[in-house]
Design brief:
Blueprint (H helix, E strand, L loop, with lengths): L1 H18 L8 H19 L10 H27 L3 H28 L9 H11 L3 H29 L3 H25 L4
Length: 198
């Protein structure tokens, strides 16, 4: 009974940390990663079996980063629909809101089943990117947004490829692998819009 209570306490503390403790010293991404680390350590040290198979650090860190990136893509896609000059870029933003919104929902459901804590808001770096982009309008927005989409999707594809091979959790590995074609579509579309070959 003590083992189960210890696990519940660790999970509760993890959720509390991920939601923010009011100090402002940690952003939501760091809080979620720290909460997951605590849960993994408590499961490792207690030897207790929870209702979910514990995920490894590589898998939980990937889930946290994917959630943060997905939320950022949705926020930026919404900005594109209001701040872009080009209808093509507004449509691109709408596609990202839809696709990343669906991926975010799948990831949330998966994390819930796996007892993985995800950030409940954008991390500080992502917030800064969104805020900086939100100050731009028209053609200035179009250029900044599309350049960022090429850069971000290149990085995302690398992270998702790595997770699709390195994550120990089979469900997260599958999530990464099945999301890759959508990310590649976004990158290819961004390159066409910007005229970038590579």
């Amino acid at each position: 009974m003590k083992t189960v209570n210890g696990l519940l306490l660790a999970a509760g503390l993890g959720i509390f940390c991920a939601c923010g403790n009011g100090t402002g010293n940690e952003d939501s991404v760091d809080s979620a990663k720290n909460a997951n680390d605590s849960i993994i350590k408590s499961q490792d040290s207690s030897g207790a079996v929870s209702t979910a198979t514990p995920a490894d650090k590589t898998s939980t860190d990937f889930a946290v980063e994917a959630a943060n990136g997905g939320m950022m893509e949705v926020a930026m896609g919404k900005l594109a629909q209001t701040n872009a000059a080009s209808q093509r870029i507004k449509d691109y933003g709408a596609m990202l809101v839809k696709d990343h919104g669906e991926a975010n929902a799948k990831l949330k459901e998966l994390a819930k089943r796996k007892d993985i804590v995800l950030p409940d808001s954008l991390g500080s770096d992502a917030q800064k990117h969104v805020a900086d982009l939100g100050k731009k309008k028209g053609k200035e927005f179009d250029k900044a947004y599309m350049d960022m989409m090429v850069s971000d999707h290149n990085k995302d594809i690398d992270k998702f490829k790595k997770a699709s091979t390195d994550a120990q959790d089979a469900d997260l590995k599958n999530f990464a692998a099945t999301t890759l074609p959508t990310l590649q579509k976004h990158l290819d579309s961004a390159k066409v819009i910007t005229g970038k070959k590579d």
